[in-house]
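Batch job 17 of 40 flagged for manual review because the log was empty.
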Amino acid sequence: MSKAKHPLDEQIVSLLQQKGLIKSEAKTQLKRDVYNLRKEEVTQIHNYANHFGIHTKKKIIDEILDIRREAMLSRLLKRT
């Protein structure tokens, strides 16, 4: 997980704990569902970085992670 915590990460961990997971399990699930990039995503990021530069690489990664966080939070809130 990244060192700078995103505000939604703590909210997601809290909701997972309410579902019965312990904190380490919740963080593991967050890492697996949000932070692990699939091979095709890594390839796409490298292609963008080669064409548009390293700044774009960081921006794309941030966008992917934001979308995943919001989707995970939405799923958790619907189940509550």
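Reviewer: the log was empty due to a logging misconfiguration, but the result itself is present. Residues 54-79 form the longest helix (26 residues). Unflagging and moving on to job 18.
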